[in-house]
C-alpha cells in the first residue's frame, strides 16, 4: 500500500505517447550505459563537460575522434542520484514533521531514500544511461537534407532561452538553424516513449512488461511501461462494474 502511494505520487503525470519511431543516431540507444557507449566508440575521446545547469545526476560527454564528422554530445542521467533527489523532494513536500498523518508513508519514503544513498558504485554505473544525443557537424548542413529524410518540420520557432531559431520533427528530432533558416548548425535526437518501451524489452526480454497487468507485476519495468500499466489500472477501476464491486465490498466491510 505504501509502495503504491509512493509510486502514484512520483508517476502521477502520464506522458503522451508518441507513435512515430525515434531516429537513432550512431546506434546510441535508450538505456545504453556510459560504459556501453564507450565500447561503441572505443577509439574516440570522451570528455566530461560541466554545463552550469547540470545537477548531480546529470553527466554530459562530448565524443570526438577519427571518422566522426564534428562532435557528438551525449547527455546521461545517473538514475540512482536522480532517485535520491526525487525521494528527498517527496519527503520535503509530503512529510511535515508536525503532522502525524501519513507517518507510515513517510517512513517508507525515508527507507527508499536510505537504500538509494547506499547504492554501490556498480549500481551507479549500471544506471547511468543515455538521455539524449546531439550532433554538431564540422560545418553547417542544408536544411533540405533533413526535409528529404524526415519531411517538412512539424514546428519552427525561436528558443525562448537561447533565442536561436529551430525546427522540430515529432519523431524526436530538433535542429538549431541559421537565421535565414537554410542551414543546420546542430541536431538534437531525443527518444520517443514508444522507442523507449521497445528498447527496454530488447534489453530486458524477461521483464514481461508487455503482459504485466498491475504494478506488482512491473517491478522490473521502465517508467514508460509503469505509466502505461498505471493508466490501464485506472481505466479498469473506473469501469462501472468495478465501481459497483468496490462499493459492495465497502458496505459489507462496515
Secondary structure layout:
Layout: H1 2-10, H2 34-40, E1 45-49, E2 58-64, E3 71-78, H3 79-94, H4 103-117, H5 121-126, E4 128-136, E5 141-142, H6 143-150, E6 155-158, E7 165-169, E8 173-177, E9 183-190, H7 193-203, H8 223-237, H9 240-253
Antiparallel strand pairs: 1-2, 2-3, 3-4, 4-9, 5-9, 6-7, 7-8, 8-9
What this model shows, in words?
The chain folds into two domains: 2-203, no CATH class; 208-254, no CATH class. 40% of the residues lie in helices and 21% in strands. The chain contains nine helices and nine strands. The chain has helices at residues 2-10, 34-40, 79-94, 103-117, 121-126, 143-150, 193-203, 223-237, 240-253; strands spanning 45-49, 58-64, 71-78, 128-136, 141-142, 155-158, 165-169, 173-177, 183-190. Strands 1, 2, 3, 4, 5, 6, 7, 8 and 9 form a nine-stranded antiparallel β-sheet that branches. The chain is globular.
Q: Keywords, please?
A:
2 domains; disordered N terminus; 9 helices; alpha+beta; 254 residues; 40% helix; nine-stranded antiparallel beta sheet
